[in-house]
Amino acid sequence: MATNGDSKHPASLTHLAARRIRQIATEELSQQLYDKATFCIIDWLGAVHTGLLLPWKDALVKYAKLNRGIAEAYAWGIDGDVSTETAAFVNATLAHSAIRDDMHLEACSHIGSIVISAALALAQRERWSGEKLLRAIIAGYEMAALLGSAIRHRGNFNAHFRPSGLIGAFGVAAAAIAAEGVEETVAVNALGFAVSMAAGTNEWAWSGGTEIFVEMGVASRAGIASFDLANAGFESSDTALEGKDGFFNALGVGPAGAEDFKDWIEKYPIGKGVLDVRFKPVAGCNYAQTTSAVAVRIYQKHKLGEIDRIQITATTQAVKYPGCDNAGPLNTIQNTKMSIQFGVCAALSFGKLDEDIFKCCDDKRVNELISKCGLDASSEYDKMYARGLQPAMVEVTLADGTVLRESAEDVPWLTEGDVEARSISEQARDISKDAAVKVVEACKGLRDLAQGDELLVHLRSRR
């Protein structure tokens, strides 16, 4: 149950979060924040269209039709309106299905798939303006990034849990709070429920299960449910984060999580969450990006003869992340997109990585190379990681003794121009390229729309 706090009993963390959200909803924001949120939407659209190519799309459509509910919001794949929660679930699951959606490094999470899917669905149900929708998205990224950074900052987080699934509902609830302008008590209750609905483990990284994608949909849907419960009058624990049996203690983070949560709010300006988001160049795990890019460079710069051995060096965070140090057997596309060894060896074999290549779990050449791989972590690279970089090195020794070595300090993140071009290309699989260009231009004009769902009307007309 929410209390505002006083000098003897300081405000709870959810109260502090609610006040930060209020600032985002009411104060003047920089054009930089609006622009970044817009490109997050543009990137999200491309990811959704790519998700339609994946084999579990039919199961997702079947689920959506079973849970159609009241027609309130648009869901890709079924080309029709479903309930707000089902639309958020479907679109978030699709957006993450290629594992190429945006990345917040400190929170180790894919925020856009979850927050944007829910925000667009709510915008249609509640008739938000374009301005409200953008502020909602900025608030959603802010709170998801804040919570993810707090649980991961000290390195004692229980890594069996998946950060995206844990923080996503919190971000969605924040988006709804910002747009709807509810009083602080309701906001605190919504955030408390979102914490209680956090879920997601990492076994999929080894077994190849599709829960990696479904977890995003569940988080997006749960955030909407959290807000609706609070708005209907349900009350949650305002100490859901820092309490004796609250979120931080449940995850093994302890009081440090609460300290980092408060410090983040006090230290950083509004908008840090969305501004820190980056766009991956390859549709695979964040921690396999630099190693794969370096391997592609080796392929492009050198004539590869018979390979005797391959040595990969990355950060401890990359090597230890579930599914990343996986030399096989690899059975699913989920396995190949997580495995650092597969990414490097496929890049050395084909000179690139794409959806077709990630399907080559049983490629003889790639698997032979994987058997010749060594993977180690570097303490020097870990120091660079602490500064926000993800360095890696790949050393290939040929049978004649020639050593080919390439390294990079960080992922070759995409620019906004790259994001736009990729999104247009991805959308153009389903609509004409000219239509895709107009969709992107519509996104750029979102702030001026009296009703944000006009963007969805525009999107539907292009299909």
UniProtKB/TrEMBL annotation:
Q: Which residues form the MmgE/PrpD C-terminal domain?
A: 285-408
Ranges of residues in domain MmgE/PrpD N-terminal = 18-252
What Pfam families does the database record attribute to this sequence? MmgE_PrpD_C, MmgE_PrpD_N
The record's GO molecular-function terms, alphabetically, read: lyase activity
Q: Which InterPro entries match?
A: MmgE/PrpD_sf, MmgE/PrpD_sf_1, MmgE/PrpD_sf_2, MmgE_PrpD, MmgE_PrpD_C, MmgE_PrpD_N
Q: Which family does it belong to?
A: Belongs to the PrpD family.
What is this protein's name? MmgE/PrpD family protein
Species of the source:
Cladophialophora psammophila CBS 110553
